[in-house]
Each structure stands twice: as C-alpha cells, then as structure tokens.
Amino acid sequence: MSYAFYVFWFTVKQSILSVLFTVPIGGLIARALVWNHTWLPARLCLKVLGLPFITPALVGILGFIALFSAFFNVYSLSGIIMAHVVFFSPFVAHYMINAWRFIPEEHYRLASQLHFSSAHILYFVELPQLRKALLEVSWICFCLFLNSFTLIMVLGGGPQKTTLSMAIYQSLFFFYDPEEGFKFGSLQFLLTLSLIFLTCLFKVRPSGKSLKTPSFPPLTAPFQRPLVWAALLLIFSPIVAVIFPSFKAAPMALQNPLLWQSLGASLSTSIWVGPLSVLLAMALVSTQSVFGKPLATLYFLLPPTLIGTLLFFLSLKTPYIPSTFFLGVMQILYILPFSYSLLVSPHRSVKETYGPIALSLGLSRLQSFLLVEWPLLKKPIATALGMSCALSIGNFASLAFFENSGAPGLTKLLYEQMGRHFNEGMVTAFLLLIFCYFLYQLPQWILKTHDRTASA
Amino acid sequence: MFRRLIFVLCMSTSSLYGKEVLTVYTHAPFISANFGPGLPLKEVFEKTCQCEIEYVVLDTVPLIVNRLNLEGERTKADLILGLENIGLDVSRIDKLVPYASHCLAFVYDSQKIPHPPKSLEELINSSYQVILQDPRMSITGFGFLVWMKKVYGDNAVQKWKELSSHVLTFTRGWTEAFALFKRGAASIVFSYTTDALYNELAKGNPHIKAMHFPEGHLCSPLYAGRTKATQHSKLADQFIDFLLTPEAQNLIATYGWIYPIKDDCIPDKWFKAENYQPSPTGIAYTPEEIRDFKKAWVQEWIDGLIE
Q1: Do domains A1-167+207-247 and A254-456 have the same CATH topology?
Q2: A336/B232 Cα distance (integer angstroms)
Q3: Does the distance separating the beta carbons of A73 and B170 come in below 8 Å?
Q4: Which CATH topology does A1-167+207-247 take?
C-alpha cells in the first residue's frame, strides 16, 4: 500500500469512526435536553451549547490532553476519536434540537395517551421525524472530521496517524518538499470535489435556525438527566482544566514578552478581519447574491489546508504582497460562512415582514436600512461581529500557514508551547480564552443589544 | 574630491577600529537562557580577540543547514556549531572540526521502571510506552532510525513494527519528546546518555537514568563547520582552535552536557555523580552511506509502519 493511499484511508477511517460515536452521543444529549427542557441544568446547558464553537480549538485540545492523558494514550486513534466526540457532540446536540422543534406536539400527546414507553416514542415518533436531520448532521460531521486540522496536528503524529491535511502541512513546512505537498494537496482537492458533488446529490443544506420560540413537548424524563450533566461536563471540563493550572504558572509566563507581542498581533488581525467578514456577509445577504447559498455549506466542505496551500503557493509567486494579507484572506474565507448563516435568516424575515411597507412608503435603500433593518438586525449583526472576531483570534490554521509580521500570534504561540512548555501554554490558553469571549461579547455591549427575542 | 577620498578611506579602515563580528549559526541546545555553553564560550573568547560573536539560534540542526543552503553565497554565517554529519547536506561547509560528541540513549524514570530493559531487543519486546521522534523532522529521531538499521539490517522493518505497538507518539523534535516525558506521558523517552547526568546534577532528579546497551549506541561527533562563504575565515579558525583548548572543552561539557572531545577535560563532578557512565561504544557508520541511503531507509520505515 502506498503512503498516499494509506494517509487517505486513515483520514476516512478516523472520520467515520468519529461520526459513529459523536452523532449518537450528541443525539442522546439533544433528546435529554428536549425532554427536560424546563429543568434548570438543562436550560443552562441549552444556553451554553454554542460555547465549544467559539472556544479556540487549541484551548479545548489542551484541556482535553490535561484531562485525559492520565487515563489513556491521547496521541492515538482513540484519542482523536474521543476528542472529536468531546468537541463536536455539543454541536450535534445543537443541530438536533433545532430539528426537534419541527416534531408536532400532538404526536407526543397521542403517544402518551397510548402509553408509549420512552423507547417506543424514540422509535415510532422521533426517529422517523429526525432521520433527515440525523443524516444531515452525520454528513456535516463526516466532512468536518475529514478536514480536521488543528486536532490532528496536536494528537496525530508519525506515519501511522497522519491525515491528508497533516501530510500536506508537513510536506510544505517540515520536510520542505513542495512536490509531495502538491501530491497530497491534489488528493485533498479531489476529495473535496467529491464531497461537494455528494453534498449536492444528497441535497444537504444545513437547516437554518427557526426564529419562532420553540414549542417543545411538555415532557419530563428524570432518568435522562445524567446525560444533561454529562453534556455540561463535556462543555466545561476542558475549559476548567485549562483555567486552574494556569493560575500557578501565570507569574512566570506573563513575563514572557513574546506572549504580549503575540496577543498584539492576534488582536490587530482580528480587529480588521472580523468587521470585514461581517461587511462582506452583509453585502452578500442584502444583495441576495447567488454565492450566498453555496457559501453557507462551505464551512464543512472546504478544508483549511486546501485554502492554506493554494494561498501559500500564491504567496510564493507574489513576494511583494505582505503575508498579513494572505492571513486575512484565509481567515475571512473561514469566517464568512458562519457570519453569513447568522445573518441570512434574520435578514430574510425582516425583508419579508417590512419590505413591502418600506417600498410602499417610498423609502430609499439607505432610509430603509437605517429606519427598518438596522434596529431589527442590530442583534444578529452584533452576534456575527463578535463571533467573527472570536473565530479570528482563535483560528490556528491560518497562523500555521502565514506568519503574522513580527510575532507568532496567540494560537501559534500556544501550539509551540503545547509541545515544549505545557504549563506556560496553560496561561497562553487562558489569555486566549479571555480575549476570545471578550471579543465575542464586545459588539453586543457596544451596540447595547438585549436578548428581546429570547429564542431558547 | 579630497573630501570624498577621506570618506572612502574612513569607510575602508572602519573595520580596523570597530570589532570584527563572527556570525555563528547554532541550535537551541547550544544557547538558551539557562542552558548551553554558548554564552560562557562567547565571554571567554571575546576577551582574547578584538571581536564579537553573534549567535543566530534556530530550533534544530536540519533547520540551520536548510537555511544555510537556502541563503547560499549571501549567507551571513561564518561558522556553524552543533552540526552533526548525519544525513545532512553539508556541501556549503568547507571545514568540519569535531569539538564534542554525544550518544543517543533511551532515558527512563527509575521510580516507575525499577528494572529497565537491558538491551535494545528487550526494550522492543517489552510493553513500556516509549516516546520517539519522527525521523523525517528530527535529527534525534533519524539517529534512532540509523541505529535500528545498523543493528537489525533487513530485519529492521519487522522490529519497527513490534516497537511501534508501544510507541506513545512520534514527536516533531527532541524538545517536544522530552517535554512529554517530563509531564509523565510515558516513562521512556529517546534522548541522550548525558541527560541522566544533567537531570541529576543540574535538576536534582537522580531517578532519571539512561539505559546502557551492551551492543553499543549511536554516537555522533558535534562539529564546528566553517562556511565556504565566510569573509572571516581567520577569525573562524581562531574560534575553532579555541573550542579545542582545555578551558573551552571544560565549558562545553559543563554547560552543554555533552562529551568533550578530549577525555581529560571531563568535569570532576561528573565522576562523582551516580548516573555517570563513560561514553558508550559507538555503532560504526559513515556519513557517506547515510547520505546515500537516507531516503530509502526513511521510505522503508514509513512502509513498514503503515503495512
């Protein structure tokens, strides 16, 4: 078996195995949350399901290693799968809860009149309704795991545990073998093309979050409550595992000038990348561009290494363009699908509700934006802006490909420290975490948005 | 015209009044905040000459060589220190002088492993988790690849497979591997014989010991290499001669934790240490055969592991 084929096979294998564990666990968590949605811990859990999403992947992985390395070899296939489960089952749960909203309440009432057990309800009522969403989320996870970069870079290693993404990166940056990099890059390109083709064939389109308040069935199932605790543990334990040890190492690590330079570098990038991504997303949304719809699927289809490699070769051909430019482009390409998806459905509903009135009043585009859209879209825009800045500062792949001018950037520094000075890395991770959450909240504070719609 | 002449004269003689700068490319173990002979050597040498040593520190030896070859004629480097002639392209270096040596070894925590394997064979057959380096990226890791090949020949692939069942991971470099070991991720790491000495004398951890195998270890000289492109070859030679003086040899051993090339320069405190063992028998190899077979051996290693 050739090495390239093995790497391809390993990429697919780890992805399939990760899906097989992540989706059922995420699904069960979603069910436990829906069934206990009035219970306080479950309400808290519903609120924080999105947290792993804005938490920088490297911080999560650091916490994961700190937690689990005492119990088993985390630098192995099982470590990779376990890490995928920890970071992605909240995502699956989040996705599935949205799908649960579409199950009519009457079905549950009828089921309880017929004295269905919980297992019967699952089999006869829920599964048929959720099948499509389950398949969709499995496919999305499969693609995400195939393209997994940061996680594999940390937990993989050696020829046996190399995925396509890692092989590309290693050839370019560690072995200085652009030919090999090109070979693996082409393989990844083919894989991505076939994924896009299959996505179109299966008509997978991530369902947008419905705006209406969820009408969950009035159920209580105390026996499912341990799952809610498990979900809370999955979400918080990697973060807590980073925070506490960092206090001890802080006095030393905070004196490292490189830490502050990196923070400066990361902040100065995210300050322009975040707003620019939201502006671009807003432009795509308001012009109802044809690129919009496919764009929303790119977050799971386009591997960061493929973008990175293309931009890297481009940067070699154009030495007069500073690497910060490519860094920004790579981050924007990564962030855009998310900010687009956050803005598209609020914008659509505003347009549908108030568009005709604005038109009949003869408002110009600007007036209509200032008087009608802005007050209603302020909150989603603030969320999108916060998320874009947070994703920018927490992104590792772009920094792995393009050096910031002068300092490495926080995630790159953290990656180096994870290998060398683990405890110092904890402090960097904590700092990264603080700034990530701070940047996420900042626009919402500035724009003074309150959660008036209060959706779940 | 006269003014211009004076200006040109000033320019051409300024180096007589300013200090001559010797640019040295070296790797992190040679010079860091609390480790490495780089700073003490600089201090002593600069007292003997009207010159200044400027270190450019890169992570690993292969990185230094890559950078040197990439810079070609334009390189600022006059001298390379810490160089190992093992599978590296040293065509841009015209003089290699060994000034120290080190030997590879498995280092273990004797509190966790009271009865360590006594030979390479025993280690391979054991079930202890081992941290290794990826030979494609790390010179330490490549050293072990050569070691295996030299001991087992055509059988090496089979032995790699047996070993890989209890390899914790292949790290990018030695630093990452040792950091993992220090965190207790595994109780054996592939490293150097003198690590045990360093951990006992400098860190107060005598339980970190090196395994000494009777069949021999892979040892390699550390060279000072004068670059072909140097403009300061005299000063470079002077520094190389200095490295071989007893004073410098003692500094190299004391701060660098590597064997000096002259046996009588071994620091006295080494002999008193519990973990001191003289430099083990070296496994014979030639730089030429390694250069010729490097690619094939690495490929064989990859194919063996993924089979």
Answers
A1: yes
A2: 54
A3: no
A4: MetI-like fold (1.10.3720)
Say if residues A396 and A57 touch (Cβ distance below 8 Å).
yes
Band (B66; pLDDT cuts 50, 70, 90)? confident
What pLDDT does A450 receive? 57
A254-456 belongs to which CATH class?
Answer: mainly alpha
Alpha helices in chain B (DSSP H): 2-17, 38-48, 61-71, 120-125, 139-152, 156-164, 174-182, 195-201, 233-243, 246-256, 268-272, 287-306
Is the pLDDT assigned to residue A292 strictly greater than 80? no
**Nearest chain A residue to B133, by CA:** A158
In this predicted model, what pLDDT tens digit does every residue of A132-180 receive, in sequence order?
899 999 999 999 999 999 999 999 888 999 999 999 999 888 887 888 8
Cα-Cα-Cα-Cα dihedral sign, residues B237, B242, B244, B250: negative
Q: Does B78 touch chain A (CB under 8 A)?
A: no
- Interchain CB distance below 8 Å, B137 and A1: no
pLDDT over 50 at B2, yes or no: no
Domain parsing of chain A, residue ranges: 1-167+207-247, 254-456
Preferred mutation among A65, A414, A418, A420 to probe B, highest tally of B CBs within 10 A: A420
Q: Is the pLDDT of residue A124 over 60?
A: yes
Instruction: Spell out the domains of chain B, with CATH numbers in brackets.
Output: 10-101+220-272 (3.40.190.10), 103-218+279-306 (3.40.190.10)
Of A1, A175, A419, the CB nearest to B176: A419
- Using CA coordinates, name the residue in chain A closest to B170: A158
* Residues of chain A contacting B66 with CB distance shorter than 8 Å: 176
Residue of B nearest to A173 (CA): B137
Smallest CA–CA separation between A300 and chain B, in Å? 28
The predicted complex's ipTM stands at: 0.84
